[in-house]
């Protein structure tokens, strides 16, 4: 089961996202503060983090930076009311995979999340067929 961590200070949004993602078959963890987010990311090892920028004890940017500096390989999607181009560009520049502006449509968030998860899984899957010119090697059956 794919694990998702939601880091959002608004309890209503956090609850709606958790219920929606759980109904789609995800295992969901939640956090509303920077320290809780970092602890949950370390302890739960989620495959993706949906991250608000404005948190009561700091910034989602700090969470994103800490995760990436610590080698976190999963997808990070910012979910923020900050809608200026410079806000989106900054979020992507510090390591986020995507940036969704509030208000948002749950189906769009779900589609983007699934796309990023699929891309990461494909990147982690070793290639079993290698081609060089007219030569093709199938590593699975060794032919």
Descriptive report:
The chain has five helices and nine strands. By secondary structure, it is α/β, with parallel strands linked by helices. The strands form three sheets. It has a five-stranded parallel sheet with strand order 2-1-3-6-7, with helices on both faces. The protein has a two-stranded antiparallel sheet with strand order 4-5. Strands 8-9 form a two-stranded antiparallel ribbon. Strand 4 and strand 5 (58-59) form a beta hairpin. Helix 2 (34-44) packs parallel to helix 3 (60-69). The mean pLDDT is 91.
N-to-C CA distance: 34 Å
Helix amount: 40-55%
Strand order of the largest sheet: 2-1-3-6-7
Radius of gyration: 17 Å
Query: Overall 3D geometry?
Result: elongated
What secondary-structure arrangement, pairings included, does this model have?
Blueprint: E1 3-7, H1 11-23, E2 27-31, H2 34-44, E3 48-51, E4 54-55, E5 58-59, H3 60-69, E6 75-80, H4 85-93, E7 98-101, H5 106-124, E8 129-132, E9 135-138
Parallel strand pairs: 1-2, 1-3, 3-6, 6-7
Antiparallel strand pairs: 4-5, 8-9
Quick summary of this structure?
The chain has helices at residues 11-23, 34-44, 60-69, 85-93, 106-124; strands at residues 3-7, 27-31, 48-51, 54-55, 58-59, 75-80, 98-101, 129-132, 135-138.
Notable features of this structure?
143 residues; two-stranded antiparallel sheet; single chain; alpha/beta
